[in-house]
């Protein structure tokens, strides 16, 4: 009786697709979209090219599926809805920290997809508009939280600054941080953002400028 090679355990289709997505995110993050091939994705996932094509019709569809996965997971994270006010203090910071923790949990679970979305895809010609639309939606959401800032120019600027600072803080932490200190990092980011927003009100009050409501007449 001859020894038979062990049979590969077949994964259910959803698990196989998820495995391919994780492998593809790693390859795309290393090589970029144009330089990545389906053969490289298949090798990273430990499957044949045919198996990849059973789940995804093209390289573009695969790339888009990674971006959609991260986007959908981020959209499901609960966010504060009440506009921030300078007198809110620690309760507002704790609410922000809870939302940031949910967001970073997605980044920690899907690190290569998160990097792909915010560090790489915006420079890929086929996907830059898609990523910019996501960024615009995020800045609009933050502007809603800053509705008590009367000056629309300052409000838009602050929203962009908060969005960019948060994303960059998370990306850098993914690169250099330690899993066991994630909570500390999130809390530091929350206080950093609170300081940024608080300094706006301090400066406006010192100059006698209006700080809210946002729909006040200029």
UniProtKB/TrEMBL annotation:
InterPro entries: Homeodomain-like_sf (IPR009057), HTH-type_TetR-like_transc_reg (IPR050109), HTH_TetR (IPR001647)
Domain HTH tetR-type span(s) in chain numbering: 14-74
Pfam family of the protein (one): TetR_N
Domain of life per record: Bacteria
PROSITE patterns listed in its UniProt record: HTH_TETR_2
Residues annotated to bind DNA: 37-56
UniProt keyword list: DNA-binding, Transcription, Transcription regulation
Gene3D superfamilies recorded: Tetracycline Repressor, domain 2
Name listed for the protein in its UniProt record: HTH tetR-type domain-containing protein
């Amino acid at each position: 009786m001859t020894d038979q090679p062990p049979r590969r355990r077949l994964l259910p289709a959803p698990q196989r697709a998820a495995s391919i997505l994780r492998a593809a995110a790693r390859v795309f993050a290393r090589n970029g979209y144009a330089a990545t091939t389906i053969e490289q994705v298949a090798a990273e996932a430990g499957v044949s090219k045919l198996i990849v094509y059973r789940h995804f019709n093209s390289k573009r569809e695969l790339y888009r599926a990674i971006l959609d996965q991260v986007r959908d997971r981020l959209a499901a994270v609960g966010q504060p809805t009440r506009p921030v006010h300078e007198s809110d203090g620690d309760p507002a910071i704790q609410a922000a920290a809870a939302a940031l923790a949910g967001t970073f949990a997605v980044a920690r679970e899907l690190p290569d997809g998160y990097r792909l979305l915010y560090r790489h895809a915006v420079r890929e010609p086929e996907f830059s508009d898609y990523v910019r639309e996501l960024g615009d939606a995020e800045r609009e959401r933050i502007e809603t939280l800053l509705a008590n800032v009367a000056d629309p120019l300052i409000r838009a600027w602050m929203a962009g600054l908060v969005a960019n600072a948060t994303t960059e803080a998370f990306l850098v932490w993914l690169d250099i941080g330690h899993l066991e200190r994630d909570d500390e990092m999130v809390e530091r980011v929350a206080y950093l953002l609170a300081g940024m927003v608080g300094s706006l009100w301090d400066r406006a009050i010192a100059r006698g400028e209006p700080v809210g409501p946002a729909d006040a007449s200029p």
